[in-house]
Amino acid sequence: MKSFLTLAVILSVAIGVFYAVTSSNLLVRYSYDVYACASPSGETIELTFNDIKIGENVVLTNANGESTLEILQATQETVMFKKQSETFTLERVEKRLLRELDALVSILYCDVSSFRM
Fold first, then answer.
1. Tell me: the pLDDT tens digits for 16-50?
2. For the whole model, what pTM was predicted?
3. Domain coordinates of the chain in residue numbers?
4. How far apart are CA 57 and CA 38, in angstroms?
5. Which contacts of 61-67 are long-range, i.e. CB under 8 A and separated by 24 or more positions?
6. Which of 85, 104, 108, 80 is nearest to 95 (CA)?
7. Are 83 and 97 in contact (CB under 8 A)?
8. If DSSP states are collapsed to H, E and C, what string results for 40-69?
9. CA–CA separation, 53 vs 113, rounded Å?
10. Are 50 and 56 in contact (CB under 8 A)?
11. What confidence score (pLDDT) does residue 11 get?
């Protein structure tokens, strides 16, 4: 009887601890997608997404520094965001980034690395 009571107490404490950890913010799910894009001329741009949805932010890193931009359009195939007069369209299926500045379009080819936890 004593061992049954001890087992019941240990099991109750374990269930309580499990519930407390899983219902709190201790187990936060982290995820991000990183697109490392490069042009044949050697220009590189890195895009970091926490969540690919309209209104979320993307961090754009290039030779001039880092910028945080808002996602204007997002579908399964494309993501569009703007930096002043430059419009960027990421074609997720083809893994390429189109950069439009005035009438000039540059194409950068991307490698994708993702992190999920």
1. 777 766 665 555 555 678 999 999 889 999 999 98
2. 0.69
3. 31-116
4. 21
5. none
6. 108
7. no
8. CCCCEEEEEECCCCCCCEEEEEECCEEEEE
9. 18
10. yes
11. 78
**Do 14 and 6 meet the contact criterion of CB atoms below 8 Å apart?**
no
Residues with Cβ within 8 Å of 53's Cβ and at least 6 positions away in sequence, in order, are 71, 74
Q: What's the average model confidence in pLDDT over 69-76?
A: 93
Q: Mean pLDDT over residues 81-93, rounded? A: 93
Residue 13: exposed, middle, or buried by beta-carbon count in 10 A (0-12, 13-18, 19+)? exposed
- Asked if residue 82 lies in contact with residue 89, where contact means CB atoms within 8 angstroms, the answer is no
What is the token pair recorded at 83?
């930096």
pLDDT at 74: 92
Closest CA to 56 of 70, 66, 74, 67: 70
First to last CA, the chain: 43
Residue 97 CB burial class (10 angstroms; 0-12, 13-18, ≥19): buried
Instruction: Show the tokens assigned to 84.
Output: 């002043």
